[in-house]
Amino acid sequence: MDAERFRAFLLGLPDVVETMQWGANLVYWVGDKAIGGKMFAWLNLDEPRESANGKPHLVLSYAAGPERYAELLELEGLVPAPYAAKNFWVAAESWSVFTTAEWQRELRAAHALTVEKLPPKARKVLALSPAEQKKAIAARRKELAARASK
Fold first, then answer.
1. Element (H or E) spanning 106, and its range?
2. 3-11 and 100-117 are packed helices; what angle lies between their axes, rounded to 10 degrees?
3. Which residue in 14, 18, 72, 108 has the most C-beta neighbors within 10 A?
């Protein structure tokens, strides 16, 4: 797996939205965050380098869930995800941690875990037709913008 295959795979999962955040990170959400969507993976696009504290470059982080978290941390190349470990996220030091099929299994599981945690309001919007979803998301963004400008 590499960054482009990762993107293509994730964008093919149901209701996935991609955003750019925190510098050069592609963040993957189940549902748009304006309607209460939740992130389940992020890809670090920064060039690999050693950090000042000697920690390795991490290529991606994803939701592992409490059931698999400890088991995954026993694998060489997986570490607690910075800033997200308390929510049972792991981070990979390289793409070679898993085969392509194993990555796909891990990312499908992260997506499924996140779908289960979506609030009812978000689930309701995601059940709409694509055109109705787009309309609902636009209305919610407009509402949030109006609140922010007050």
1. helix 100-117
2. 40
3. 72
In a domain, 148, yes or no: no
Rounded Cα gap, residues 110 and 64, in angstroms: 6
Kindly report whether the global pTM for this prediction surpasses the value 0.90: no
The total of structural domains in the chain comes to: 1
Does a structural domain hold residue 133? Answer: no
Residue that is written with structure tokens 């979506």 in the block? 118
Whether 36 contacts 44, CB under 8 Å: no
Query: What is the structure's pLDDT at 137?
Result: 92
Could you tell me the mean pLDDT of each successive run of 10 residues in the chain, 150 residues long?
Answer: 86 94 88 93 75 65 95 95 92 91 95 95 93 92 89
Give just the sign of the alpha carbon dihedral 87, 91, 97, 101: positive
Give the domain extent around 20: 3-118
